[in-house]
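FIELD: query
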Amino acid sequence: FMDSHVFRKAAARLPAMAGIAVLRFNTRGTSSPRGTSEGSFDNAESERFDVAAAIEFAEFHEDPVLPHRWLLGWSFGTDLALMHGLDPSIEGAILLSPPLRYSAEDHLAEWAESGKPVLALVPEHDDYLQPPEARERFAAVPQAEVVGVDGAKHLWVGEPAVQRVLDEIVKRVAPEAY
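FIELD: result
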C-alpha cells in the first residue's frame, strides 16, 4: 500500500537525508487515495508480476540510477518479497511486520541459500507474528536478523515507530549515512 504513512514518510525523507531513492507501488486491486490498481487480489500469486515489474523498473531506470536495490515490504508485502523478490539485482530484503502468511518454508530456504541479508522488524504487539515466534520461523534463514521493536504495533503508528523503521532502513541500505 504505497500511500501508507510509513512509505510516504520514507519516500519524503530518505532521498534527502540518506541518498536512498524509494519506489512505491500498489499491487493489483489495491485502493489508495490515488485510485485503485487494475486487476484483483490473487493471494500472492499474480502479484508476482507486480513485484517483477517494480524490480525491472528499478533495475533499468536511468534518472536517477538506482544502483543498490533492496526490497522493503510491509505485512502482505513481506510475503511478496519473500516469495517473488529473490532476483539477482536485489541486494536484500527488509520486512516490516512480516506475518509469514503466504510465504512458505521453501521461500525461506531460497533466501537462506542466496545468502542475501534479510531484516525482519517485528513489533512487540504485532497482530500476526510477534518477536519470539518470528525468531523461530526465521531461524531457517541463518543470515536473517530479527529485530523486535518494543512497544510497536503492526501498523507502526506514531513518529517514534516510523523513525525506528527509517533508521533501520538507513543502517542496512546506506550505512555511511546512518
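FIELD: remark
The radius of gyration is 15 Å.
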